[in-house]
Design brief:
Shape: globular
Largest sheet: 4 strands, antiparallel
Number of helices: 5
Order of helices and strands: HHHHEEEEH
Strand order of the largest sheet: 2-1-3-4
Helix content: 40-55%
Radius of gyration: 21 Å
Length: 237
């Protein structure tokens, strides 16, 4: 799987000439992307285990990673906007993430505003996950649907997936939930979100590299000074 944050990203080699605010925000962007990549990889791994029959009934693990991935991606957007990007910045393509992040962040408000609909339809509070499996060895393609919590859904609509064109074993991971704003879509494609994040971050990386070069800033490898570990012990008496 291709990561959002590449090893040659300028976020790994921030110039010392940056002011404290810029250095802190850019480095936090790097850290946020690493968390986003980790959670998405773990989600893929859990869904693959499930689809291969190696691990089942671990819904809480998959939903934890799915919601965490959205949260990290939305946090990246908010941190990047703290740099005051122009109105035509590509970052605004990710604005739709906020309503999904809010759905879980403010689940109590969501429950209060939509409880009648959720109870009547038996909709799960933490949503539903579905993905398409492309099993080359068995020569079959199928969709799996995971419901969080007690199953009480009265009606399920299933849209037939494509039978070909998949590149991976796990494809089209989608999370369905109830957002606070009812005029919005209630389903987000996590696979597409990961792809969009890669594309947008690649563009941001390119612009950063060009900006640093034009400003004559020296790229620095912060490896020995970032994400440090400090072991603190009491003096022996």
């Amino acid at each position: 799987m291709e990561f959002i944050l590449k090893s040659d990203s300028p976020l790994h080699f921030l110039p010392k000439e940056l002011n404290s605010k810029q250095l802190m925000i850019f480095d936090s962007l790097r850290f946020t992307l690493e968390m986003a990549d980790y959670t998405y990889c773990q989600l893929i791994e859990q869904l693959e285990k499930t689809s291969k029959g190696l691990d089942s009934k671990k819904h809480f693990i998959a939903f934890n990673y799915a919601w965490s991935f959205i949260d990290h991606c939305q946090r990246f957007v908010k941190l990047y906007k703290a740099l005051n990007p122009p109105e035509d910045s590509i970052i605004y393509e990710l604005d739709h993430l906020e309503k999904f992040r809010d759905a879980i962040q403010h689940v109590d408000l969501n429950l209060e505003k939509t409880h009648v609909k959720m109870i009547d339809n038996g909709r799960p509070i933490f949503g539903a996950l579905k993905w398409t499996v492309n099993d080359i060895e068995k020569n079959e393609v199928f969709t799996t649907l995971w419901i969080s919590g007690i199953f009480n859904i009265k009606n399920i609509e299933f849209k037939q997936h494509s039978q070909n064109g998949y590149l991976e074993y796990i494809n089209d991971i989608k999370l369905e939930t109830d957002t606070l704003k009812k005029n919005y879509e209630n389903e987000i494609n996590l696979s597409q979100t990961h792809s969009d994040m890669r594309r947008i971050v690649d563009i941001i990386n390119k612009k950063l590299s060009e900006s640093f070069k034009q400003g004559g800033l020296q790229m620095v490898d912060w490896k020995s000074r970032k994400d440090v570990i400090l072991n603190m012990k009491n003096e022996k008496t």
